[in-house]
Specification:
By secondary structure, the chain is α+β, with helices and mostly antiparallel strands. It folds into three domains: 21-237 and 401-453, BirA Bifunctional Protein, domain 2, CATH 3.30.930; 254-380, Alpha-Beta Complex (YbaK protein), CATH 3.90.960; 470-566, Rossmann fold. The strands form eight sheets. Strands 3, 7, 8, 9, 10, 11, 12, 21 and 24 form a nine-stranded mixed beta sheet that branches. Strands 16-14-15-17-20 form a five-stranded mixed beta sheet. A hairpin with a 5-residue loop joins β30 (539-543) and β31 (549-552). α2 (44-63) crosses α11 (444-454). The longest helix has 21 residues, at 167-187. The mean pLDDT is 94. It binds adenosine-5'-triphosphate and magnesium ion. Residues 109, 140, 142, 151-152, 155, 157, 406-409, 441, 443, 445-446 line the site of adenosine-5'-triphosphate.
Amino acid sequence: MKASQLFFPTLRELPSEAEIISHQLLLRAGYMRKTGAGIYSYLPLAVRVLKKIEAIVREEMDKADGQEILMPIIQPRELWEKSGRWSVYGDEMFRLLDRHNRGFALGPTHEEIITTLVDADVQSYRDLPLMLYQIQNKYRDEIRPRFGLMRGREFIMKDLYSFDLDDAGLDVAYKKMYSAYRAIFTRLGLDFRVVEADSGAIGGNESHEFVVLAESGESVIVYCDQCDYAANIEKAECILPENSEPPQPLREMEKISTPGIRTIQELVESLGHPAHEQAKTLMYMADGELIAAILRGDRELNEIKLKNALQVNELFMADETTVREQCGAGFGSLGPVGLNLKIYADPEITRLQNFSAGANQDDYHILNINLGRDFVPEKIIDIRNAQAGDFCPHCGGTLQSTRGIEAGHIFKLGTKYSDAMDATYRDQNGQDQPIVMGCYGIGISRTMAAAVEQKNDNDGIVWPLPIAPYQLIIVPVNSKKEEQMQAAERLYREFASRGVEVILDDRDERAGVKFKDADLIGIPVRITIGPKSLQENQVEVKKRWEKENILLTMEQVVDYVLEILNRA
Ligand code: ATP
Ligand code: MG
């Protein structure tokens, strides 16, 4: 491709709406343009990257016995009524009506469609197992579409669904997908971790996320420094270490006036009580009932753990008016003593002795509270976020924490959808049995953004070779000099004939501009042809991920570059 013809409108200015680097760079380097909130048009360079990611995904899906299909984006409401999700999916679903007022959804995911599809044509145990997948646009009306392709309202996903006779079959399918996903993210050239993920309240099901490591990522993960354990923070179990605290004599509770003090930190400052000797009391509405969750003052509550432990459908923080009506105080003065609600306490609370908390009276706190003597929780449950420094639940090692981007998610569904939608097969004894399912997603467009987020420097994108839009760019320093252009064209034809994806920067621009653009769009290898190339038969080769150039002869350069590219 000649750069003069390539449509890659680069921007000199930093796009103001773009908060994270991948969003900025994909706009600046002319990969995409915003069409609406969370809705993007992909320009030629982006399409090439997306196709490469898709090709790797396809190859691994096919290798693992997946078969590609393509299902409709427009999905009839009846199918979602049948699974029960039309009413529970909520505002994230784009809904529309046809001219006869019949309801449809723009597919946010395809369990309903594929379960119906498979059920209609799978009759016998002989028809299973089956793995079907597609790569296509998905639609989710996210509350906060942001970070460009990371959280779009229209995005590209690969979704595979497995159908098996029983749990043992599902295990096999799940393991195949797990390995295929590892192969995919390795081949993409990205640093990633596989983490145990939350699989929702209808428990017991296995789920893993494939997280591309990046500081800006929305996922926080913890991993053990000694064993393989790694988990999304939403899921990571917290264990209580051995109790090394000597028991203290229980002191009498004491109510003290704390005017204006609302936060743990303010209490630390005014009383000198460290946060880990205080309790934090948080109020939630759990399926309509007000409940209290208490944990150590220096810890963060994990709403997903709380929701799973309570087995409720709906959980959200209670508003202050409701809290005040039932507890007699506002936020900041709440505590477990005398509270007429179910209290769920984190296990660490059982270790606190003579701790302080709000008095359920505005501007008062209580000192020397002790569990058992002064309040009795409904249940002790793990409800805090794991954090770096915690003990590994598997081996007792120490957990580290890092951030990343969830790019893939695999999930054992079991018979959740086949039960709801009555999808069965006939077994060897002529009995109907529910089909056992799994689902496996990769965000293709999110993965492109994640790659940029992980692989960039001050000058622009640094694509891993396997997914770079072009592998090589040839830059004649002065396109007006005929000999330089001729030499450049000769190399260009040579590389093209050997199957290298190459750009020739034939634009009438200053060399500095061309170098800047080549770096910005992230082409892995650059060959520069200048006056020296002709006088001394020397060309300059630069790898995008290294600082130094090397000088080679015209004859050497072809083999040298081919070797770099094949090594990828
Ligand atoms: P998240 O927790 O980030 O909202 P999710 O759990 O809703 O993700 P899944 O339903 O498991 O995501 O979808 C499979 C994959 O699709 C995700 O791993 C992610 O890569 C991608 N994905 C999900 N939502 C979006 C989005 N709004 N924009 C881009 N990619 C997305
Ligand atoms: Mg989501």
